[in-house]
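Thread: Newbie trying to understand structure tokens

Hi all, I'm a second-year student working on a class project, and my supervisor (Dr. K.) asked me to get a predicted structure for one chain before our next meeting. I've only ever worked with sequences, so writing a 3D structure as a token string is new to me. If someone could post the tokens and maybe explain what I'm looking at, I'd be very grateful. Here's the chain:
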Amino acid sequence: MSVIAWLLDSDPAIRWQVLDGIQGRPEGEWGPVRAAIETEGWGARLLDLEDSDGSWAGGAHFPGDFTEEDWRAMAVNGQPWTATSHSLTQLREFGLLPTTQRARDMVRLIGENCRWDHASERYWEGEVEPCINGMTVANGAYFGVDVSAIVDRLLEERLADGGWNCEAENGSLRTSFDTTINVLEGLREFDRATGGSTATRDARRGAEEYLLERELFRRLTTGEPADPDYLLLRNPWRWQYDVLRGVDYFRSTAADPDPRLGAALDHVASRRRSDGKWALAKTPKGKAWFDVDDGPGEPSRWVTLRALRALRWAGREDD
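---
Reply by user tm_fold:
Sure, no problem. This is what the structure looks like when written as tokens:
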């Protein structure tokens, strides 16, 4: 089975993105496949796990029954990924159509009922961490919610060196790759939904330049990887950064690759197996509703889809 055939022999969430983003088929071919996310496979399964009030697991970022003991155990057990913010992110990454009645009802119910763990803020008004607020902007803008107030807050919180860091409230003045990619993805979706503004475009350019100056994974001072984990191709991304996530962001926003993406693209290409697929290097620890990969070390359709799509965008079909 060819790599493309293997990708197509999968869930609608994968198939439509292969037909569109890799094969370049017309919408008449991939549109019905994307529409099936609501009623088939991973998308339908995740939607069926939604609570009657619109949330998942009874909470915004953490499950409603999350305890202090669970919090202390996170270093060993990992973070649970079953609450509303993570479920929404996964539905967006699947490509659930925001125009469906199911999606509209979901968004309305979340707005009416869901409150943040931080201080019971209304869900679509955001909370205090830019990483979480970036995800909320991405999901809200994608699903048709007015999240401009959260965007305004994020613009005010941008650091002098270009990006964002959740530790800024504790005195950090340095941009974080992890926080910044979440905010960039949020501003990308906001600009797509609203047309954006001079302020959002300037903020994106500044943060993009921060990543590009570091070739998406290096320390500016030494040229060494800022974090060895950034070179591990993972899925789901959750809030964490990796080099493929950085490449995928630029692929989604630019017609042509910046030359400074070269080292990142080289690394992604180097991880390709002899059978043409990419393996999952890492998945975040913690409880999830269900797996969408076969585990670390095994071929991953998600990583392969994103890597192959990025390389083809960059004109590296032979890689």
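A couple of things are worth pointing out once you decode it. The radius of gyration is 19 Å. The chain has a mean pLDDT of 95. Feel free to ask follow-ups in this thread.
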